[in-house]
Amino acid sequence: MDPVLIQIGPLVIRWYGAMIALACLVGLWLAGKEADRKGIGKEKIHDFFLYALIGAISGARLYYIAFTDVAQFWRDPLSIFAIWQGGLAIHGAILGGLLSGVLYTRRNKIFFGKFADTFAPSLILGQAIGRIGCFFNGDAHGYPTSLPWGMIYSPESPAGQMFPGQTLHPTQLYEMIFNLIIFGVVWIMRKKMKVDGHLFLLYIILYSIARIFVEYFRADKLIYLGNISAAQSIGIIGFVLGLILMLALMKRRPSAVTDSR
User: Fold this and answer.
1) Phi and psi (nearest 5°) for 245?
2) For the chain, is the Cβ count within 10 Å smaller at the N or the C terminus?
3) What percentage of the chain carries pLDDT values higher than 90?
4) SS3 228
5) Domain segments of the chain: what residues?
6) Residue 41: other Cβ atoms inside 10 A
7) What is the rounded CA–CA span in Å between residue 12 and residue 6?
8) Contact indicator for 218, 232 with CB cutoff of 8 Å
9) Which region among 17-21, 63-67, 82-86, 165-169 has the lowest average model confidence (pLDDT)?
């Protein structure tokens, strides 16, 4: 698999970058539609998009640095900005986007739960699209396998360098499939959940479960915490915290009812 989608002379467009751009555009469009349905207005989504993008990319990069060789970035601080070389983590992107959302909604006096719900379908669909980029790029790959759907990656890719010529679990596709299933559930439930914030928390809970499972097949895990990876640890925290916050919102914010139009 070639990680390059199009090359015209010095101009190179990689699958990874193209899929990230597509995920952002689809997510922005879908969140705008949801914002109009919920009475927030798509103009607020468009206004927030740049802040969200900066927060997500910064969070994704800082999270990756925190769980890899920090000393390497001290030796070459400018490499922190070299995101085209890889080194972005989805959990960091979610956390960075969350922080941006909290600050934006406080400034604009919007209830964060309602605002976050508008992004739940966009987030998980965007993650599914993004994993297609990871698949062609050969990162976020799995361990060797003898299963018939095992993939052999390009020798220049991260997967090919770690396991040259071996068939590997296509964990990018595993997660993409889970993400699409979660998107379907979230899309169906978006008009059924009556408490603001519950849809976003449902997304967090379901994605946490999926990521915990997929991590068992991932070979390029970030640093381990005990016998589990960093992503599994975050997944456990997200699952538990999501359930607690769901109960808390039901008990403490009985008036936070979504518009079910």
Assistant:
1) -70, -35
2) C
3) 57
4) strand
5) 4-252
6) 12
7) 6
8) no
9) 82-86
Which residue has 């922190």 as its token pair? 80
- Res 172: pLDDT: 96
List helix spans (H) across 67-189: 70-75, 90-108, 112-137, 158-162, 171-189
Retrieve residue 197's tokens. 């914030």
Taking only the tens place, the pLDDT of each residue in 23-72 is 999 999 999 999 999 989 889 999 999 899 899 888 888 888 777 766 66
- Distance from C-alpha of 75 to C-alpha of 244, rounded to nearest angstrom: 41
CA distances from 49 to 53, 96, 128, 220 (A): 6, 13, 19, 30
State the maximum Cα–Cα separation within the chain, in Å, rounded to a whole number. 60
Q: What is the pTM of this model?
A: 0.87
181 DSSP 8-state letter: H
Q: What is the DSSP letter of 38?
A: T
CB 199 within 8 A of CB 34: no
